[in-house]
Amino acid sequence: MTGKLTSIEGIAVPLLWDNVDTDALVPAAPHKRINGGGRDRLREVLFHEFRFDPAGQPKPDFVLNDVQFQGAPILLAGENFGCGSSREVAVWALLDYGFRAVIAKSFAEIFEQNAYKNHLLPARLDAATHARIVSALSRSRPPQMSIDLVARRIAIDGQAIGSFSADEMGLEMIVQGVDEFALTAQYVSDIVATQRRLIEAYPWLGG
Amino acid sequence: MPRTLFEKIWQSHTARTYGTRDLLALDRVFLHDMTSLPAFETLRERNLEVADVARSLAVIDHTVATAPGRNEETYPVMAPTVRAFRREVTERGIPLIGLGDPAQGIVHVVAAEQGAVLPGMTAVCGDSHTCTNGALGAIAFGIGSTEIAHALAYQALWLPRPKSLRVTVNGVLDPWVSGKDIALAIIARFSTDGGTGCAVEYAGSAIRALSVEERMTLCNLSIEFGARIGLVAPDDAVFSYLEGRPRAPKGAGFDAAVSAWRDLASDDDAHFDKEYAIDARSIAPMVSWGTSPEDAIPVDGAVPDPGTAGDRSQRSRWERALVYANLEAGKPILGTPIDVAFIGSCTNARLSDLRAAARVVDGRKVARAVRALVVPGSSGVKRQAEAEGLDRIFRRAGFEWHESGCSLCAALGPDVVGRGKRCASTSNRNFENRQGPGSITHLMSPPMVAAAAVNGAITDVRTLAGTLA
After folding, report:
1. Using 50, 70 and 90 to split pLDDT, how confident is the model at A140?
2. Are B31 and B87 contacting, i.e. CB atoms less than 8 angstroms apart?
3. Which residue does chain A place closest to B125, by CA atoms?
4. Sequence-separated (6 or more) residues with CB below 8 Å from residue B454
């Protein structure tokens, strides 16, 4: 796992579609073709059907192919980002491509939890902040954004522009560079006691 | 204090609370061949063991071929993954249902058939459609691969506590309207993220009247409504469904379980964070036109005009969806020609689905140039369908009759729709490229897909059925 992460700075790419789904993030066909459905080379698979035409040539009108956004660590999305499947490769592909944060009006639940577990920041914005960021980004070339994970604030070109919300425990894991496995290890006795109580009352819950 | 069904199960399984999250004890962990391998890597890296193999079950379904005569090596692209999955689970002593096993099928279908999910349980699987078995009165939900590792190691997960949402459907359904149509109608009306952050309880007279298998279809689509969890209070229909299943309790144990399961209902004055309602009589057979499950309309409706969209982002999404689906705004969806008809998936490939489709197909022929296939939800469903002669009805009409697996629902195996081809599908997602690169998907119920296969175009099954003897 990565170390502590208190800020993310760099270019933000606007991909303002709503309902960006996990099949858009990691489509099955190139995923199977490129790495047999595995975990390596996922940067090639990310948004594959939008980045490349059927002949494998980059589509010039897709925002990730725009030269001004190369190397961007922040993706600005619309609503319900990451809907669909539970496939964690969707998060791994974003990380492998170089993203450290996705900021959006809302996220699909499983994607959001998968993001926290891999220390990809899923930052939620209210509609007004989202609109301010969209308009500020359109004026800035290239748009330089900084995200303060501790204060939960976002700035563009050095100007504060608003705050984001996040799941408390998830954000703490990213900031501290820890994960929940270590936390759970402290509570094994609680799990065991709960399981025992349940199985005593309802024996069919056992194996 | 009155509680919802969801709260009763969740609270009894909460081992610890930390801030806004609960450490939820799990009763069952299901695994399949697509998302589990990284979890085993995580276990190895962290030197963790599987806590309780007897409460896990592994099934091979996602990445395999389904054509007759297939085996685990038939699809060379994913065969190494299947082999590695088989090795990982076998080494750890996790029970495995692989190809060739008479119990094989799609994991959620198998879990219910085996009686491995029971009312009041918490169950997880690395698949978003795990919510299917909420139909049995369980909290069942999809998780990522890191969560699979955590669930295997600790038989528990840290989860944000969901809000509660009740969707009430009262009234009597048209005979050609099914659980699939209810779900699509709910998603179309309340949007694909209408249930995000919620555990959805489906209630009302129309839900009570659904068969257990139709409730599974409805709960299956909870994730397309944004909700990780969907459930229905268990009743006599569920108890008789479960009686005699291999992993269900037997004899006096079953009676004791049933008497405990009778308490699994929301209290009369329980509070829900959100309430939605829909009138059963208003629901027509539904068909999706676009690239999100919320893009669903009554089959006699028109493809929507982006000019009438609720806001700018919806308008631009509709415009893109129209281009992708190659449809014209304002035109009737009826009569749209199809290339492929798919009856399958964890949404709609149980025995009652196959029976309903066969009723439409019986004595008819699949339209020329349409590739039609049935991929039963499990090998058990396939055997039972064959015993009833359904396979002969489908084959005689020109359908392919496959072995069980996920097939064209996710295109993770060799089955794909084809670029620019249009598929009438009983599956759950009409995302771009979902059924293979360039595929165009129209979600609908099994009888609706059967009608489309016969006519070679999107058809109102109510009018086709009217000609049945």
Report:
1. low
2. no
3. A86
4. B360, B361, B364, B365, B366, B367, B397, B464
Q: Which of B262, B433, B435 would you mutate first to test chain A, the one with the most A CBs within 10 A? A: B433
Using an 8 Å Cβ cutoff, are B108 and B142 in contact?
no
Residues B20-59 have pLDDT tens digits of 899 999 999 999 999 999 999 999 999 999 999 999 999 9
Q: Which residues of B touch A54 (CB under 8 A)?
A: 419, 437-438
State the average pLDDT for chain B: 97
Contact A110 B144 (CB under 8 A): yes
Interface of B with A in 174-233 (CB under 8 A): 192-193, 196-197, 223, 226, 228
Q: Which of A12-21, B349-358, B359-368, B457-466 has the weakest average pLDDT?
A: B457-466
CB contact under 8 A, B15 and A191: yes
What is the separation, in whole angstroms, between the first and last Cα of chain B?
55
Structure tokens belonging to residue B307 = 């000019």
Catalogue all structural domains in chain B, each as residue range(s) with its CATH number.
Answer: 5-261 (3.30.499.10), 301-465 (3.30.499.10)
Peptide bond into A142 cis (omega under 30): yes
Q: What is the DSSP string of A37-77?
A: TSSTTHHHHTTHHHHB-TTSPBPTTSGGG-GGGTT--EEE-
Contact in structure between B15 and B24 (CB atoms under 8 Å):
yes
Q: Average pLDDT in the A165-179 region?
A: 95
Q: What's the pLDDT at B20? A: 85
The Cα B111–Cα A27 span in angstroms is 27
pLDDT of residue B469: 36
With CB atoms and an 8 Å threshold, state whether A36 touches B146.
no
3-state secondary structure B390-414: HHHHHHHHCCEECCCCCHHHCCCCC
Sheet holding A101-104, edge to edge: A121-124, A101-104, A74-76, A7-14, A144-148, A153-156, A159-163
Q: Please name the residue that has the structure tokens 């220390």.
A: A119
Sign, CA dihedral B187-B189-B193-B197, equals negative
Q: Is the ipTM of this complex over 0.95?
A: yes
Q: Which residues pair with B166 in a beta bridge?
A: B201, B275
Instruction: For A10-64, write each residue's pLDDT tens digit.
Output: 999 999 999 999 999 999 999 999 999 999 999 999 999 999 999 999 999 999 9
The 3 state secondary structure assigned to B110-163 is HHHHCCCCCCCCEEEECCHHHHHHHHHCCEEEECCHHHHHHHHHHCEEEEECCE
| CA-wise closest residue to B154 among A202, A114, A170, A194 | A194
pLDDT digits 0-9 by tens, B237-246: 999 999 999 9
Assigned token pair, B380: 């058990």
- Sign of the Cα torsion B136, B138, B141, B145 reads negative
Determine the length of chain A: 207
- Shortest Cα–Cα distance, A125 to chain B (Å): 16
User: Which residues on neighbouring strands pair with residue A122, listed in sequence order?
Assistant: A102
- Rounded Cα gap, residues A190 and B14, in angstroms: 9
Rounded to whole angstroms, the Cα distance separating B383 from B366 reads: 23
pLDDT given for residue A40 in this prediction = 93
Domain annotation for chain A: domains and CATH numbers: 7-176 (3.20.19.10)
pLDDT at res. B103 = 98
Interface of B with A in 63-122 (CB under 8 A): 63, 77-78, 80-81, 118, 120-121
